[in-house]
Design brief:
The chain is of the alpha/beta class and 300 residues long. The chain has eight helices and eleven strands. Strands 3, 4, 5, 6, 7, 10 and 11 form a seven-stranded mixed sheet that branches. It has a two-stranded antiparallel sheet with strand order 1-2. Helix 6 links the parallel strand 6 and strand 7. The protein is elongated and about 85 Å long.
């Protein structure tokens, strides 16, 4: 990356910080806290049983030694770990409007990371294509968050494809303590969701608190009437010519995209993975707020 590209990336990072800082301060940090805080409890001490205590909290070993009932006391686990898994494969560079999928991913990463830091949580980053491109271990602080946003925007991957399974397996191996894992990707893997993907989603969701965030561009679902166009798969380089003047071609293109999205949703639902779909041409704030509120309500 040359000096001009570096300056441009830093400008984008600063713009994202300004744009997301007020949002985090005013709205999302509180929602983040209500959804994710209190999910873990750490043992603190024991005390003598009093009427009204739950029987399941009795410490039977201490009770046996003391000859009278004692219960365990727990305190809320205050510090959490947030891991941002961001897809940096070639398909993420596509954007038919003002924002590419990768730029939206960077803004989402910024909002989530600043929300975590505001609540004194650690934030880590995993960038992946069809291999693990970069891993930044979880840390605290504004400078650390700015580095994360800079990496998401400016990192130049060595590969073009997408391997979600390998990335999730890496997380399961490296992150030993339970974490909140946001998987931000367009899920353009070249094929429908596989059994291997279902397996790794299931494993990750058991070990951690997994949230999937599929990102798409409107032109990946709806083709305009532009005559004969050549569409290139950014990850494989494959070229396909389509006659977009033909309504049947545009309709079939839309149907295939809908089928893929429906299958992906079914996989998430089957594996109990919470998900929030986002589009590059639509504001994401309201959807994110609603997602947090609904999640807090369903888990209360």
């Amino acid at each position: 990356m040359n000096s001009e590209q570096t300056r441009e990336i830093l400008k984008k990072v600063r713009k994202i910080e300004i744009r997301t800082n007020r949002l985090v301060t005013d709205s999302l940090a509180g929602q983040y806290h209500s959804v994710f805080k209190g999910r873990g409890m750490n043992f603190d001490s024991v005390r003598e049983y009093v009427s009204g205590d739950e029987v399941r909290t009795i410490d039977w070993n201490v009770t046996a030694r003391a000859g009278k009932p004692f219960v365990k006391k727990f305190i809320e686990e205050r510090e959490l770990t947030l891991l941002l898994m961001v897809d940096v494969s070639a398909s993420g560079d596509f954007g038919s409007g003002k924002q590419s999928k990768r730029e939206l991913a960077a803004e989402l990463a910024s909002v989530l990371a600043f929300s975590a830091v505001k609540n004194s949580d650690k934030v880590g980053l995993l960038l992946f294509s069809d291999k693990v491109e970069l891993y930044v271990p979880p840390r605290k602080g504004r400078r650390h968050v700015l580095r994360i946003v800079r990496e998401v925007l400016g990192f130049e991957p060595t590969q073009h494809g997408t391997n979600l399974v390998q990335a999730l397996d890496f997380v399961n191996h490296v992150i030993t303590r339970r974490a909140i894992v946001f998987l931000i990707s367009d899920f353009q893997t070249g094929s429908m969701p596989s059994e291997d993907l279902r397996r790794t989603l299931r494993q990750t969701n058991r070990r951690h608190d997994l949230v999937a965030m599929p990102i798409e561009d409107v032109r990946e679902r709806f083709l305009p009437d532009l005559g004969i166009v050549a569409i290139e798969d950014a990850e494989t380089g494959e070229l396909v010519e389509l006659d977009t003047r033909n309504p049947a071609v545009r309709q079939r293109f839309h149907e295939i995209a809908e089928e893929r999205a429906t299958r992906l949703r079914r996989v998430f639902n089957a594996e109990a993975v919470d998900s929030l779909s986002l589009e590059t041409d639509k504001p994401y704030v309201a959807g994110l707020m609603s997602f947090f509120k609904n999640r807090a309500h369903s888990r209360s």
